[in-house]
User: Fold these one by one.
Assistant:
Number 1:
Amino acid sequence: MKKQLFTSITNLYLLRMTAIVLLLSGCAVTPQTHESATSWTTTWATATEDIREGFWMSKGHFPPMPLKDNTLRMFMRTSIGGSTVRVKFSNAFGTTPITIQSAHLAQAKTANASETNGAIDISTDTPLTFSGAATVTIAPGETLYSDQVDFPLTPLEVVAISIHYGNIAQKPITGHRGARTTSFFAEGNTVSSQAMGDVTTKDVWYTATAIEVLAPTAGKTVVAMGDSITDGYGTRYNYHTRWTDYLAERLQNNPDTAAVAMANMGIGGAGAAMSIDRFERDVAQIKGAGWLVIFIGINDIVYGDNRDASYLINQYKEMAELARGQGLAVIGATITPMGDHSKKAGKEATRQAVNNWIRATALQDNIYDSVIDFDKIVRDPKRPAYLLPDYAVDDLHLNITGYQAMADAVDLTLFK
């Protein structure tokens, strides 16, 4: 009898302890399961540039008025949507601290609000905080994120980031020259103004370098590493007509790729070596990156000092190796026609040799996972060293029809 009683008590004790353990275990795994279901994914980003005195690429791209104690409003078009957002701010190239007195995020009043008065939908105006505070100082060489905020971001939404600065130096400054959208510079604190009105404007971005959303783990970002062709020279300003913009639209309109985001890392004038130098900042630090498109090299051939095909091929190999180290799929893109530049001794032969390597050897040797043949899409069949006349704005750059054709040629199954 005593033995039976002891056994019953023991079994009851074990049963209760098991229930407690299971209950506690359930409580413990719930947040972890939630965390694993979502991750930060970049929905918009721009290549970060050192806009400094004495550098030819910086000429004419400094702030048109003092930023200290004044407001800057910038417009960006995102790719994927979400309900939880954060913004990345950078002082990567500054030599003195930047103080942000306040920063706000809002939906643009219209998709092309940056073309007119810089108006926002005031009902969506959302203050950003930094560890709970409205004000933050970014040390030289540093980047930081705002706190996450509830914000109803729909796919392909145009948003405005408004910054009221405290202390900030005009030069050097971290930004991006090729914004292709108009930014607004106003005196005082106007971060919550519905419209910016008659203020100073300039087509450039400063300080803000990325917008991220909490997205399902299936969500990944395509990172396009490129030069002025990717950065959108020849596009219609304020209308989001880069080839990457058109590709973002195709990705969103295709159910199988609707979770795939787009980040344009083009810099006008960039070459392959510069792209390797900025890989850590402009590729490795892109949250949620899944693919790298390497579309760079035309400047090396056109303006480089007798750079042959092996020079570019070695740069591509190094870039691909860096991408593999980050777990990214690597997509190569052929170099587009150079027009009259192809008449210079050896330059067209170099382009053809590089493109032949991209189309064949890079795939055979598993350096690239796949290839986009932009050259085939935009060249003139009658004059293969030239762009199709309907696509060209000059010897190297395309118009919006050409950029649309480039995007339309991309096989979306690459991003499944």
Number 2:
Amino acid sequence: MNERSKIFYFRYSGAFVLFFFGSGLFPLQAEIVTMKDGSVLHGRIVGQTMNHVRLKTTEGVKTIEKSKLKKIQWVKPSVSQKQASAEELRQKKEKARKERERIAKEELAKQEKERLLKELEAQELEEKQKAAQERAERAAALRELVETEKMEKPDGEAISYWDFAWRSILIPGWGHFKIDRPVMGSIYMGATAGLLYGIYNTRRIAKNATKENHQKEMENFLLSVSPGVIDKNLRIAYSMYSNTMALTVVQKKVDNYNHSLYLAASFYGFQLLHIIYNGFAWEKGLLIVKQDMPDRRKGSIRPQFAVIPQIDGEGRLRPGVFGGFSLHF
């Protein structure tokens, strides 16, 4: 979750590769564990039990009693560590891709090819499930350590659903990028941008309509206090016309603006509930990335599109297309 990208605004990605190949990112983040007896251990917290914490070190996984812990310091990964881990993951993905190509090119019966491909997919899914469960166990252990004040909240590493939710509260879709859902994040961000434009546009139309209606009311008032200027019947007709316009056309434009607000608020609430739901699933180790996403290289630009609900000038809900681009850096 240390790579960054931009999509008109900001987007976060890069961590999705963790789910593809087991624990490839484990070397990136480590902790310095200080015991009450003064000894110090280096490793990565990978889980816990009621009374123990499991620490993965270069010598294997060690089980440490919680009562003997003094403090734990989270260590931010270095640039070289991130690059080495990213290269390792790239090589594993490339190996899996070549294996698929090899199976496809071999002179095998169709059923045999399908069987081999299904076995490969099942193996990859198993690795993703294992990685998701390991991440959930680590997050649970870190949450408890933070709550018991044995460790400060890791800077940049998610440990609970709230780490995703607060981002989507600020910018709809941001939390989905953080939780490795860049496609959904793009849709939510794009749709939100379209809805905000719809609010701006319908408000502009409603404001102009009410201003024009106010001018007509003033004209009506001036005609009513100047009986000798215009014929009585014409004054009555003009007054009825102005009232009809205020109750139909002007009110409809005001209603369109109100409806655009309701639509945007409903959409905002929906995306917030969605990220909270995904966050709870992430905490349980149930969030699995099933689709293989293309590699993002620094300097690459990718188009992004989203279908956006919009309210037109007539008050009708219609789909619109939002286009943008993402720049990976």
Number 3:
Amino acid sequence: MERTAFALLRSLKGTTVTVIDDHGRFEVFTRASLDQLALEDEPVDQADLLRQRTLYAEDGVTPLTLDELAGSRALAGEVVEDMLVCVRAPDGSVRYQRVSAAPDVEDDGSGRIRGAVILVRDVTDEHVLALREADLRHRLIDVINHQFRTPLSSILGNIELLEDMEVDLPPAATTSLARVLAASRRLAELTREVSELVDLEAATHATYTDADLMHVLRPVLEAQQRGARDRDVDVTVDLPPRLTALVDRSLVARAVGALVENAITHAPAGSSVTVRHARDEDTLQIIVEDHGPGIPVTDRERLLAPFEVGSGVGGGVYGRGLGLALAATVASAHGGRIELGDHQPRGLRATMSLPRRPAPRRTPRR
């Protein structure tokens, strides 16, 4: 049976299988694995592999340590799914591999891990395609922001200047000026909405990677902390040094950043915003709490949609804008959700719940 399984795995195009023992030594390492990793000599163990070839995280810059390799994590009892690894070959070419690994446990009931099985699938073409799609979206947003917004801002500025000058114009000209000003403001608002909708649509395309979220969350939260100081708001981060899950790291980082930014925006001066987490075997939660006006229960579901505005607790208009919608979209793309609740004695608690191992999703036909 094992021979049949290995023969099947080896027949899969672009997929290789390797096996390590409980000391990280390779028991099975094929010629195809050498080609995938651009190696000339078969490595003795995982440490030797890293001596021969530096492997990088999905950003292509951060080197992976021995403990971060999928095989090492499997030997520690973890099941790794679709970890994205970047391989830089000596000829300068770059390959992307998705690595899955699982511990091989003794079947005598002892629970002892005797090794690990590692599957590696080359995903360079699909990863490059995803990067190109992301680049096109960024270019579209850039065109909207600069090629449209810049002349619009100039038009609006000059029209408002004429309006403020209180020049005696014929009634017909005054009416025309008011209409041009209203149309320009509406066009500027439409431009903003199109830009944000493109950004929101991008949040539906989740690419799962088994990785440490803190690599991307840390710089986002540090930037939010710096910005919050200008508003006299303290952002307290209570997260562990390492937080692994099968998620789209960049999307989750943007969603958390949006939740924190919303909390800072509505937090009164001198108050604090807290970012913490909770997790179990199946679910990871990122929780953001503020001491702002909160959101009435009747408005919470609706404010998860883009461009919605609600009534703040205690009166006044309360608009969380696109931030909550972005976070809700990212959570939904992962099979999770956003929940809004009260933060006692005052404020909002926004909880993003994500499955640590999302169920496979079918891509809708377009």
